[in-house]
Give the backbone structure.
Amino acid sequence: MSRLAAAFALARAQNRAAFVAYVCAGDPDFDTSLAVGRALLANGVDVLELGVPFSDPLADGLTNQLAAQRALESGMTAGRVFELVRRLRETSEAPIIFYTYYNLVFANGVAAYVQAAKDAGVDGILTLDLPPEEAGEMAAACRAHGVDTVCIVAPTTPDARIAKIAAAATGFIYYVSREGVTGVRDQVAGNIPEAVARIRAQTALPVVVGFGIGTRGQVAEVAAQADGVVVGSALVNCIRDNLANRAAIVPAIAARAADLSAGVKRA
Amino acid sequence: MPTAVTVAPPLDRLSLPDAGGHFGRYGGVFVPETLMTALEELGAAYDAARKDPAFQGELRAQLKHFAGRPSPLYFAERLTQHCGGAKIYLKREDTLHTGAHKINNALGQAILAKRMGKQRIIAETGAGQHGVATAAVCAKFGFECVIYMGAVDMERQALNVFRMRLMGAEVRGVEAGQKTLKEAINEAMRDWVTNVRGTHYILGSALGSHPYPMMVRDFHRVIGQETREQILAAEGRLPDEMIACVGGGSNAIGFFFDFLEEANVRLIGVEAGGRGIRRGDHAARFEGGKLGVLQGCKTYILQDTDGQIELTHSVSAGLDYAAIGPEHAFYRDRNRIDYAYACDDEVLEVFQLCSRLEGIIPALESTHALVHGLKRAKQMRKDEILVINLSGRGDKDVNQVAKMLGVKL
């Protein structure tokens, strides 16, 4: 069983949703980011979703744009991102997935990139701007190297497309709970149970819900309906809020992750 | 000129793009899932509209009465004398309402958005010409209008910002990255992802995801179609060479399109050489760019070895962009369209020369085509004909040029 499948199986056995945490690799610098990743995995995070910093993150809200900018300014490169994963792997067997944009995968050859990711210890790749229509080369490379693909379903996705997307995914389906970019919102979108049901009607893969989830109450609300919950910007904000005193970042994000991840237990 | 290269066999220009928006290996659809359905709906709506005589009739009428088409094809007698070579004609897109070719596409997409029942329009703008054209059509048709513009561009094109606001548009400055066209497109796409159901995004160049490169090209084909009729009327034959500037490449592809199958007409696109071809100092994608995916399509992009998009520079905001339209990349591979570049200092010089000799102040973007055109005219025989697309007028640029020349206004 892959690390991803094992993580979802464990969560299911414990009657809870999996807790997926997003941070940007190298935010605000390599060493802090490594400590952040380890702290997250020690505080209830089942799947670590690492944003690969890109110069033009057009699906991301301001919080994650600035995180990517900090990471790039601190000297993150493709090689350093892989190095970060290797260092995380020294102490953890938890699944790690990349959240990225296609140009970063494409730039030096898709197959070479996927292989490098696999060698570093990456379990899956979510490519934001790669719909299944264009994903043939990526799918083949991921299959060849045993890396899972994670695909997005949006509120605007009709049923016929869900089938096409599900066929392209091997890790899990990431349901983007609202139209828009990443970022914390006051309220969880209202239509999640219906959307999750529509997706489950077409695939046996785990359905994970993200975008706009940032409090323990919101995590609990979504955990009752889906196989996994993604929190991103709320964690990234722990980094942003402590930039003046980087030593405070790790305790802040660890406490936040512990609090949020407690929400995944179902009543 | 690269006359020794082999030109690929003729190709039916109307056969491209394919159903997935591909021009060979270029183009396609690379966007977040939230936009996929909207792009499919847009493609279907455009497909129905272009076959509908009522749509085409309304577009033709608006192009005539609102935009002021046809634009003249003007014999530039003094520039011709100055160069002492080929006869130089200027296709005068600068005479159109709002000051540039951009109005062709803005009108087409606005009429389409009206058919689709959208109430809100968004657009990006670099030099501000597309923003002004979009603001104008939104005022005319009663759409709510939001224009995204990089903060640096807002400063160098302050006049156009005020123009857009006069016509009721909300202009939102973008502070991310290098604060120019690329960042404005990112922000417009974020808006579209968020408000996709009631909003139409009038993308302003032959860029982005299918169907935009095809649709924008089609709306600008009128430039080349008129040029063909006008040069036949004036000279009784087709030109030997045609030159246009290329940012995303909308004026150029519209100008060239109906000549692609005319093997005896040389076509040249001119990119922005900026301060010279060094990393970060220019926006000439065919000089150091490589294949990649940016903002919806696969094409030539200025990027580093990891795939991070590089900084660009050009004196003209409208050419200051890291990617080129996918159809241009396709025809370059086939050696059907050649590409050159012009640098800031040459542009500044020819901007003044054209103003002085012809009484026409060209846009800095279009001046790139003039720079290369004047070089070519000198190399051509007197019985040869060169047509340059004067894609826009330079009124918007006079403040910036005055500042660069050290003139206090």
